[in-house]
Amino acid sequence: MKRLxxxxxxxLAFTLALPLSWAQAPKSFTLPFKxxxxxxxxxxxxxxxxxxxxxxxxxxxxxxSRDERPGRTxxxxxxxxxxxQGSENVGKGEHFILIENYGGAMNGTTNPDxxxxxxxxxxxxxxxxxxxEADRMRSLVINQANLDNQRHAVQExxxxxxxxxxxGRTFETVLDTAYDNFAYKHSTIGSMEDxxxxxxxxxxxxxxxxxxxxxxxxxxVGDFKTEEALARIKHYFEGIPSQPAPPEPDMTEPxxxxxxxxxxxxxxxxxxxxxxxxxxxxxxxxxxxxLNVMGSILAAGQSSRLYQTLVKEKEVAVNxxxxxxxxxxxxxxxxxxxxxxGKDLAxxxxxxxxxxxxxxxxxxxxxxxxxxRMQFRRQRAQQLQSSLFRSILxxxxxxxxxxxxxxxxxxDKISRVTKEDIQRVARTxxxxxxxxxxxxxxxxxxxxxxxxx
Amino acid sequence: xxxxxxxxxxLWLPLPLLIATVLLLPVLARAQAPPxxxxxxxxxKVERKNRAPVSKEILQVKLPRPVEATLRNGLTVLVLEDxxxxxxxxxxxxxxxxxxxEPAEMPGLANITAQMLREGTKTRTSRQIAExxxxxxxxxxxxxGFGSIAAVINAxxxxxxxxxWFALLTxxxxxxxxxxxxxxxxxxxxxxxxxxxxxxxxxxxNERFSRAVYGSHPAATVSATPASLGAVTPELxxxxxRERYVPHNAILGIAGDIRAxxxxxxxxxxxxxxxxxxxxxxxxxxxxxxxxxKIYLVDRPNSVQTTIALGNIAIDRRHPxxxxxxxxxxxVGDGPAARLFLNLREEKGYTYGVYSNFTALKYPGPxxxxxxxxxxxxxxxxTEFFNEIRRIxxxxxPEAELDDAKRSVVAGFALSLEQPTELLxxxxxxxxxxxxxxxxxxxxxxxxxVTAEEVQRVARTxxxxxxxQIVAVGDASKIKPVLEKxxxxxxxxxxxxxxxxxxxxxxxxx
Lengths: 453, 510
What we know:
Structural class of chain A: alpha+beta
Low-confidence stretches of chain A: 1-26, 447-453
Strand order of the largest sheet of chain B: 2-3-7-4-6-5
Shape of chain A: globular
Helix content of chain B: 25-40%
Number of helices of chain B: 17
Mean pLDDT of chain B: 90
Largest interface: A-B, 133 and 112 residues
Oligomer: heterodimer
Order of helices and strands of chain B: EEEEHHEEHHHHHEHEEHHEEHHHHHHEHE
Largest sheet of chain A: 6 strands, mixed
Helix content of chain A: 40-55%
Largest sheet of chain B: 6 strands, mixed
Strand order of the largest sheet of chain A: 1-2-6-3-5-4
């Protein structure tokens, strides 16, 4: 379970597109992979690597919460849970039992843009991973009892992560305020009401439409022989019938014409928090790379401009973070400032905008650009030591951009960002009219023991 | 199979919920079944079909052994060469410099000392350090978690510029200046953190549980206080550093793209100024298990879940029962194939996750189970929790389940070979507890030799309904009557202060 924690950490870091680094590593450190397509349309990416007696498998499905319809928020993720509830040859709960008992690690995750399922196992259990993924893609068991059970599990997941936590509602408010298009306007975890509304028919439809081999990418990284592995993959997967291509969600986001502001009260928070959000282009575009580098300069780590100004110099905040989110569709750049109690939020906001004006008006320093590149390079070299991380990333780039090779070219794109690019994107996107500001303040507690100081 | 360190968790912001997952980390484990629940959830039953193709053969892996050296100043050095990737990780364990050794009135002294290393040296300002670390693309952090005997410096970076970032680490280690103005700033941030952590159910559960099981042992302390922060001075930090950051008590682990034969002479040179003293690490007397069952309730109004933690002091890391405890804990609550998870989540739907773990360090720590359940099923969860305790104590684990648990521990070894950091942790653990050089080589055979009788024996020895400590964090107006079914309840507020019946904030009944 320790491992799961690590996996989650890298996934979160990745999803936020905090300074990820696909810098090309120094020394000979390459990530060769081969691509295949089965007769039923399943894309297969194999990356052989014998440096440890392990392998990772990741199935990335081209479906996420952006594909949900109104009234069914949270469904893509609820469905993800159903994928662990058994199939023709695998009992409910047996997936967990098999992976754990043979020394593996696993998880499934859903975000707005994709859903993935992954395992890392000792190399001698190659068939186990392939069998489990194929069996549920082919023959998921869908029934009311399992749906109700997992509905409860997911509702507790929501309570744990959102409803019972300080700032739990802030993120949903940010999405709801910044976006106009339903696809990204709602959270992946969904509302309690919509989770309650999900039916067995919904599950069956979703499975048929989205969980077809032609809507998925299988990535396999680690200690196997490519030809042998491909033969096993064909054996397990090729008999699964393809389906008509699923509908493409409408991702168009109307241009924002004026600043949006919202203030929410939080029953658990003890200090105010300021979220400043700008609409930015989708990931893997030249402007997005420039915004990503700019985000790091502004808000990544203790040497970042906002940390130095707000936390160290002016002492109006106790922590800051932010960056460019990596989305397939219209994305967001966000800055989060955890304010020091008693400080004037308007003043803090003004200080942030002064830093943003500085980015627009003055070229960033050479050392700042170098720093971002070096951090990317080191982080990438560390992350890619995990076969799982590689399998997840290959699948993600294949599904998002049809470009799995980004696993090696991402760094070049980061490195090509110039000072001029940063000034240009700052002027283009960091405008008041393109901005959303969400302020979270502690809810005044009448009865409960107010903090003594 | 790794040594479980006591729970540390970032108190800062939850990350935006961009993804949702089928499993979360082992946050806490917990329990069960549903007498109180009126709306019955349809039966959703865990089932094994046994049709999956599995290799019954356990992949035999041998963990690489580090090169070991002792420098002239007494520092123990462990080097694991691993040239697959162009990176290096460093962990420096400064035994004797952790909060376990703090004066009782100064909680936080050890961690503030560690955190202040980055805030200035004789030749570098805080800002210069931050910029240099980031420019080198390195990571460099020092901390000292409550309950720990040690302060730890972690660093990592590319092997290309290892000499540069290690030199920075050396400067922080040997020449910190503890600038008063930086200390004042850090104190302000920590004061907010003290306030903020009280919003988090996990912290509140951890605080109360630690007090319950550790009693007067210093590991009962899990946080600084406004008063202790106020009392910290640059002089106290410098003294703590001078007296306790000593090489002969420390272990320096380095793994990655580095040559041990070249590195050790360089370390002699780089760390020559770090002088041996005659300070020895002396542990306080071991904590004893609490001797009577107690129930603690932390009233957190508006909570929609109850955060439960229960358990008691068990063993230290060198105890001969460690190996059977690993297997017992695996069966009960370590992971999503364990009994607690399958029962409370997969069958009952009470929770997103329940787990158990045990902390075994140089002194005995608790076996602990827990999780977060929705308020309405607090009673059902506690019932199931005690059902599982009864089961592991009173029934022998069936042979097939025991085999699975043991195999899962041993087979998981292979995965650690991907990660130099994990391999380094194994090496440091062995050294820290003075285990023989072949400790990890013989570990799998020891696990496989554990019998159902031993599992039952350790369960009966270390988990007892008679003396178990139960902590619940939630809305007292809803769960106090439930908890009272299990015994007398002591109530605390989120500030950690006892609430008397008469003052009555929680006495209000719906």
